[in-house]
Design brief:
By secondary structure, this protein is α+β, with helices and mostly antiparallel strands. Helices cover 23% and strands 39% of the residues. It has 4 helices and 12 strands, in the order ββββαββαβαβββββα. The strands form 3 sheets. It has a 5-stranded mixed sheet with strand order 1-2-7-6-5. A 5-stranded antiparallel sheet has the order 11-10-9-8-12.
Length: 205
């Protein structure tokens, strides 16, 4: 039996689909792959390759895919509408239905799993070059895998990015350039300016 529930958190909606229990093998929160993948390909990479083309056909864009948990992993899909308008609960349900079917065909997860679909929200993660450029001028927090100039956490104004690195301006006025592969996580900070900038008119019928 498959059960589903809807919820709304900080301006984004989500659709959750739970699958029947099967065995799963996870190590330190990361999936143990079945040995057929290249060693430099993560489960998230495999899922993104399955999900992104499907979303594009549906008029959406993939912002992020993450796999969390051990015995029963949760696949989190964060998506945008390609036209820039806000995602609704109905959109999340449509994405969940189509994407879960596509994942089932390829079956990259050897066990029971839960699917969560949501919009990126206002204080969204910065996962793509286009996100860094779209939200230039807004405040963000960045954490890196390795120390950059003696620190791993930064807070400042987004200045944009290219295919290799992102730039932010710190409170003291200095600019920091961070290689995209070195970024563990980056997220916008909720401000009045960001709320105003992301407010969009209702979609035309």
């Amino acid at each position: 039996m498959v059960t589903a529930r809807y919820f709304t958190v900080k301006s984004f909606s989500a659709f959750v689909r739970r699958w029947p229990s099967r065995a799963a093998s996870f190590l330190f929160g990361r999936p143990v792959l079945d040995g057929n993948e290249a060693t430099n390909t993560t489960l998230e990479d495999k899922l993104a390759a399955i999900i992104a083309p499907r979303l594009e056909l549906m008029g959406f864009e993939l912002v992020r895919v993450a796999v969390l948990g051990r015995e029963r992993p949760t696949v989190q899909i964060m998506a945008d509408r390609a036209d820039g308008s806000q995602i609704s609960v109905d959109d999340c349900q449509q994405i969940s239905h189509d994407v879960s079917a596509a994942i089932d065909v390829d079956d990259p997860i050897p066990g029971a799993w839960t699917l969560e679909v949501s919009s990126a929200g206002i204080d969204r993660p910065l996962t793509r070059v286009k996100d860094w450029n779209r939200f230039a001028g807004h405040l963000a927090r960045v954490e890196t895998y390795f120390p950059q100039n003696g620190r791993k956490r930064f807070s400042g104004i987004v200045l944009g990015a290219d295919e290799s690195a992102a730039r932010i301006r710190l409170d003291d006025g200095s600019e920091v350039v961070i290689r995209l592969p070195d970024i563990r996580r980056a997220k916008l900070v909720l401000t009045d300016a960001l709320i105003e900038a992301t407010a969009s008119p209702p979609r035309a019928n």
